[in-house]
Amino acid sequence: MGMERADSGCRAMTRGVLVPPMAMPQNGDRTSVMEDIGRTLVLVLMPFLVPSILRYLFDVGSFTTGVVTACGVICVLAVIGIVRAPTASSLTTSFLISALLAVVIGSHAIIVSYFNDIDLVRAITSLVPLVTVILTTTVLRINLFTLPDTSVDRIVWFSFAVFVVIGVNGLGGYQPASIVGGDKTVFPFTEPSHYALAMAPFIIYLAVRSKLVARYSVILISLALALLLQNLSLLVCTLLGALIRADRILVLLSIAGAPLAANYIDLSYFTDRLDFSYGTTNLSTLVYLQGLELAEGGLRTTNFLGIGYQQLGVVNLYSPTTNLIYRLLRDDLNLFDGGFTGAKLVAELGVFGLVLVATFVMLVGFSILKLRGKRGQAAPSASTTLALASVVAFSVEMFVRGAGYFTPTTLLLLGALPIAWATCFRRSSGAKA
Length: 433
Prior knowledge:
This protein is mainly α. The chain contains 18 helices and no strands. Helix 4 packs antiparallel against helix 6 and helix 16 (about 350-370) packs across helix 18. The chain is globular, with a radius of gyration of 21 Å. It starts with 7 loop residues before the first helix and ends in an 8-residue tail after the last helix.
């Protein structure tokens, strides 16, 4: 299953209308379809599902172990020639970037340690997965974001289909028992939000790039799964994909369908999670409020310096909501990941985290504009669309529900970042990986 070199000519020929892989796009043969299935398994499903499987079956504490394991497998496959290996120059560039980030973040942690009692060993050792992930994104980028349009389209359709099957399987309850998940697990995801975050880039990609019927089908299927699984994060991801297109028909259908959904589906699960009033005991709401308090506390107690890399849950920050969660559960909930990634960045990195979050907001805004496009303007290539969709999808993890720094979607984001940045802030379109 070798990975063929991207062909810019083929990319130009296939740019435009997206069709499902089952329709056999032009010039598609059995070999190329099988190669794209292999790419889907290695580049998407393995890094997206292996970390969750380890958490679900073996109670691995975070995604870090699974993500690093998947990164190791991808790198080994590149070394032995199963997937394309990056050039020496691109690999050197990634190594220098990762080394620079490690030095800056490590130095920040050392400076913070002079003013606060932190776990400096935890901070320094956590730089290893950071470097590993960044180096792996070089392999991911050259194997996923430089493919012809037909290949990217098929990979996204294959991935979306797998996640739909996972969701339907979760509805049917045909899944092994999890020792860490609650009653809403969707195997292999221990939390419904993790399922939504993994599915988000593909929903947004297909909502933007599909033809009319396929687009509505993707959005309606995703919306149905969100409502039936009672998954607020998936609902947000689906609405985000729909709103980027802002189709009049879609808006009218949503308005007309809202009363019908309210009559036949219990929406209290969603409304309860939007209740931020004083005295709420909804755990999802409390986790979000806890994240806001931790971010504020991290800034206030350190004069905007931050408490240090990977120190949430280690450094004691005053949070009334954290105390309330402990009284309700007799356990700390989402204390290490901050509830959402933006809160973790701000609490740990202080003003630098604020700058990162602000920069990301700007990039998301420009990515949405690029995805919407202008009348008469050529649509971006499939690989560029996937890169932009990955950035926009990560906004849910950044501001709604996160799971720490090292998640499968972080891996996809970092692989997409150079392409999305070049597309948004350079006059020339179609940036190369």
